[in-house]
Design brief:
Structural class: mainly alpha
Radius of gyration: 20 Å
Shape: globular
Number of strands: 0
Mean pLDDT: 76
Helix content: 40-55%
Order of helices and strands: HHHH
Number of helices: 4
Low-confidence stretches: 1-6, 24-33
Distance between the termini: 45 Å
Length: 154
């Protein structure tokens, strides 16, 4: 037998870690901690945006990524915001009524679009739809993920 206690409630434990309050069933989706999200940089590096949801495997933690140049720093910021947008999107698929999380989603989306535009103007396109020049630059090297700044992470 895998579990001694057959009354184990996995959903309850997971949601408790995320900060849900089970004492008031009518407000199931209200958070006890009003600051439930971490910033996009931390969320990207650890793999989720929810403050109380991260539990390191066997006490291990993530390795902090450090950009080595301005180009890499801008690309990291774009990747962090893209991750935050996707993580919040998954939550909003199940909880579309959560206006507070939707405000973060809109804020990060706007900021990410601005940074992608800045990156395209400075270093070249990240996606095919970023055509801000008179010539076709999609095939020009180096690609954003090529090792140009000495980092082994991007």
């Amino acid at each position: 037998m895998l579990f001694e206690n057959n009354n184990y409630d996995f959903d309850y434990d997971i949601l408790s870690l995320a900060g849900f309050n089970f004492n008031r069933p009518e407000t199931f989706y209200e958070y006890e901690n009003k600051d439930v999200l971490v910033d996009p940089q931390e969320g990207f590096q650890r793999g989720n945006m929810w403050r109380k949801e991260y539990v390191p495997y066997k006490g291990m933690t993530y390795k902090k990524l450090n950009p080595t140049c301005d180009r890499e720093a801008l690309l990291f910021k774009i990747m962090e915001l893209d991750f935050a947008i996707n993580d919040l999107n998954l939550y909003l698929d199940l909880h579309p009524e959560d206006e507070r999380i939707y405000e973060y989603f809109k804020k990060y989306t706007k900021e990410c679009l601005e940074l992608k535009d800045k990156y395209a103007k400075t270093y070249g396109p990240l996606t095919l739809d970023q055509t801000n020049t008179n010539t076709y630059e999609w095939m020009k090297n180096p690609w954003p993920w090529d090792k140009t700044g000495g980092s082994m992470y991007v």
